[in-house]
Structures are given as C-alpha cells and as structure tokens.
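Page 37, continued from 36.
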C-alpha cells in the first residue's frame, strides 16, 4: 500500500469514499472500490505477490518434500514427491497468479457477489495439481469478504462455506492439494471470521470420463460456481482427443450455476489449441500478460513477466445448441481438410 496526500493509505481512502457515497450509484462505486482494494492488496504497484498466509502455506508444503532432479515432464505433471517439490518450486506461483489475474474482475463483480448471498461456494478444479486454482480463489475470496465487511455490505456474522472438488489422476497431486488446503485454513486464522473450509471431494478418474461423478456431486451439494481447467487442455487432448474434450466442457456447463464462470488457462505455447477449443465451444479466448514476484524467491525482489491464454465464460442454458454447433463446425473443418488432400 502507499500513502495518500491525507496521510491515509489508498485502501483507507477508497473505503471512506464508498461509505460517503450517496445511494445513487452506490452499487457501482462499491463495485469499483472493491476491485481496487483487492487488486491493491494482491497486486500492489501492478506486480502480483503472494500474501503472507500463502507464502507460509507454500513453505510448509515444500518442507515436506525431497529436493531431487526430475524430468521436465515430471516437473510439469508430477506423480512423485520429488516431482511435486519441483512443480511447487517452479510452476505453483505462476499458475496461481494467472488464476487470480483472470478472475479478479469477475470475483469483484455484482454478479459474483450475488452468488455469495447463499452462504456457500462450490469450486470444481479439473487437473488440480496441488489445488493451485482452489488456493488462488480462496485467498482472493478471503480478502473480498474482508473488504465487504469493512464496507458494511455484508453481515459480519455470516460465514462463507466453501466446497472444493479436486480432480486429478495423480495421487500425489490430490494428496498435496488436500493437505495444502488444510494448511491454508490452519494458518489463515485472520480469515476465520469470513470463510470456512466446508469439505474437499477428490476424484481420481480422468475428465471427461468422470462427468457422471461430477453430476452426483452437484446433486448432493449444489451447482458449481467456478469450474477451472488450468494447464490441462494439452494432456486431455492427448489422452482423450479434441472431440471428447469439447464434449466434456459442454457437459460441465450444465453442472454450473448460471451466474458462475468456467475458466480455462493455458500457456502461450498452446495458443493454437486454445483457439481451436474456444471456437468449438463458441467462446472467445484472450492473450493475457502479468508481472509477478518469483516464489520461492532466488534473489531479492525478483520479478518476471509472463503471458498466457485464457477463456472465461458464463455457462449457457443453450448447451444442446452449442453441442450441435460444435459438431457442425468440426464436421465442416474435416471436410475442408479432406478437400485439400
């Protein structure tokens, strides 16, 4: 945070502005204020940084794992404890910040805040690794709720209960993800008045073959509010093929809350794949760029700029129509390719 001319921090000034605003336009003012407060907290000066709670959670996880040299594939898609250590060391913060960067605008919108009125939130984390997306959402959500309390727009006694549905075929990923979520809530005592860990459900069957399991979870606990696919398109395409992947993504829409969002994040080297998938399901993709501190830090104040691709879209009630469009589009593409042979 930085000091204003009045001697107060920017956060203090924004809170004062929101509280002094007239009723006319108050919703818009508070929405913008909330966005600025959360961004200032998590991305001060335009550089994304881990909060103290998240730094501690990551340090604890690293301390439990052996530091050994592993292959590049094992580092990206860990199946061993050493591979998980390498992933946390190299990729965790990068994927974590990309999730927060992609979701900040939505999670500080009126549409998302209306979801929180139910007192619960359901997160589906496909290809979860060590629950990277779930942790990124949770830490940002904790600060959103804290600022809402300060702004007087949420009952202080109201706790938000979060359910996590983790999906990965790697046992070390599911186990580490569960443990890091438990560690986060154990360490984050400062957030205990805003958010609680309701339950974690782990699914080891690969997507999209697990859609029936995801449906049962929805039937028992409610629709998913955020469904995320972080750095998982490429392996899913290799294992299941594009058609099955597209079909699975379309099926997930029917499991989501209509005010919720589906997030796809993938590295810049998979731009063609992201564009192909987004076109098939009828949504747009975007190239994003962010500045972040490197964790664990090698040098003091080490920062880096990363670019990646994302799709963030609302589930539609017209899923059958999208499925028909996807089939027609795929068939047409095949005919064009055959005509060139």
């Amino acid at each position: 945070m930085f000091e204003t001319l009045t001697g107060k921090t920017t956060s203090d000034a924004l809170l004062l502005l929101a509280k002094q605003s007239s009723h006319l336009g108050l919703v818009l003012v508070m929405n913008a204020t909330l966005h600025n407060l959360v961004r200032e907290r998590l991305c001060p000066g335009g550089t994304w940084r881990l909060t103290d709670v998240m730094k501690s959670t990551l340090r604890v996880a690293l301390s439990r794992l052996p530091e050994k040299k592993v292959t590049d594939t094992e580092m990206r898609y860990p199946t061993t404890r050493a591979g998980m250590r390498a992933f946390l060391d190299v990729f965790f913060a990068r994927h974590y910040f990309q999730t927060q960067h992609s979701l900040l605008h939505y999670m500080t919108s009126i549409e998302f805040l209306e979801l929180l009125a139910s007192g619960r939130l359901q997160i589906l984390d496909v290809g979860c690794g060590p629950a990277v997306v779930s942790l990124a959402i949770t830490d940002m959500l904790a600060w959103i709720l804290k600022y809402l309390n300060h702004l007087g727009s949420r009952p202080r006694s109201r706790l938000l209960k979060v359910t996590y549905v983790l999906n990965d075929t790697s046992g070390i990923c599911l186990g580490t993800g569960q443990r890091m979520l438990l560690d986060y809530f154990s360490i984050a005592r400062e957030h205990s008045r805003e958010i609680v860990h309701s339950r974690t459900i782990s699914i080891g069957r690969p997507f999209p073959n697990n859609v029936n399991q995801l449906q049962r979870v929805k039937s028992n606990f409610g629709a998913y509010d955020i469904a995320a696919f972080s750095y998982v398109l490429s392996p899913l395409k290799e294992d299941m093929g594009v058609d099955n992947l597209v079909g699975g993504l379309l099926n997930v829409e029917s499991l989501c809350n209509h005010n919720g969002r589906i997030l796809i994040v993938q590295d810049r080297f998979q731009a063609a794949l992201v564009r192909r998938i987004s076109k098939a399901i009828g949504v747009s993709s975007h190239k994003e760029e962010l500045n972040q501190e490197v964790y664990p830090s090698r040098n003091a104040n080490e920062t880096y700029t990363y670019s990646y691709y994302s799709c963030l879209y609302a589930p539609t009630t017209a899923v059958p129509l999208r499925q028909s469009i996807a089939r027609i589009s795929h068939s047409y593409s095949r005919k064009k390719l055959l005509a060139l042979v």
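The beta strands are 47-48, 120-126, 160-167, 195-203, 224-230, 256-267, 286-293, 303-313. Flag for discussion at group meeting. The chain has 14 helices and eight strands.
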